What we know:
2 copies of one chain form a homodimer. Chain A has 208 residues and is α/β, with parallel strands linked by helices. A 6-stranded parallel sheet of chain A has the order 3-2-4-5-1-6, sandwiched between helices. At the A-B interface, helix 1, helix 2, helix 3, helix 4 and strand 6 of A face helix 1, helix 2, helix 3, helix 4 and strand 6 of B.
Amino acid sequence: MTEHSNSDSKLDAQLHKEKMQKQKEKVDANIAAANIERGIALLLTGNGKGKTSSAFGMVFRALGYQQKVGIVQFIKGAQESGEVNFIREHCPQVFIHQMGTGFTWNTQDKVADIKASEATWEIAQSLLQDDSYDLVILDELTYMLGYKYLDRDTVINSIKARPYEQSVVVTGRGGGRELREVMDTVSDVKNIKHAYKAGVKARKGVDC
Amino acid sequence: MTEHSNSDSKLDAQLHKEKMQKQKEKVDANIAAANIERGIALLLTGNGKGKTSSAFGMVFRALGYQQKVGIVQFIKGAQESGEVNFIREHCPQVFIHQMGTGFTWNTQDKVADIKASEATWEIAQSLLQDDSYDLVILDELTYMLGYKYLDRDTVINSIKARPYEQSVVVTGRGGGRELREVMDTVSDVKNIKHAYKAGVKARKGVDC
């Protein structure tokens, strides 16, 4: 290395250090400003892959701190899923309920769908009223709102009235403006591309 | 119920059934068309919450089918995380390696960061060459590309050359056009809003 390039490299390292110091100050200030401690309401929406898997990632995040977790799956349950297999086999402490009727285009019976979604909502609501639960997952709840199978105000009011320390994760496309307003964090998972469209079959361990 | 509203309700049920039948035919045709069986390369990118948790949801999805899983975390590891606690305590069959230096604005040392990311990449690459792994998670790999700590072509070629049946999940903001091109599925997790900005502290079991 020449003396010239050596001093260039020192300058580069110094510039990097200064830039990163500024970045660190900014990050530290943001962390210091966020000091309210309470449960979070999170909505994972959008047409892309990763909403249910993200909710289940948070299940294991919570289990890593010995928290109490309840899961209600609207729609899902008619088909096998790896994450539910795992929970049923290894995590008996997790409460899980699946509506289990499949997508509404499978049942093709609106009256039966409404009845099933109302019964499932009763169970969801009991979790949202139970302060022993640290984390409640309401997987694919948004479709029940989109199809008007559940009353939007009832759902929103139950989320708002849940215990102060309880976090809730809602997943599914859509959900509407009123639901977004009541949630603390909203991520919109956009589909940029999907293997499925290129003819690749849904994969156990990734897709189901 | 009057006779009139009763017939309205029958008509509504019939229309619903027809609409759902059409939807089912469409879904069934798409499923039939997707018949290539191989591992999937998935990129979870964007500035919103849910990328790492989604990758870990897939870890448990895979474990629910007794698949073999390897995880390499670039950046993460300096701070505690619930999902890693859970894996270390309950899933000894999962290979996990963390770079563990924290974000680059914490170290403020470019030369040390490059060295750490290269050593971590060696481990990632060994998983991408091992066909006993069904699923490989490369958490926050994109930042190593963004900072040019790793060579983009080396990374992309390793992902392309991995075993045919192996799935790989890459997470992190950015990553670049070339990486997106090589991935089968790309989800862009957009931040609509975040509790953090409203002053709510990061929550164990949800955020970390």
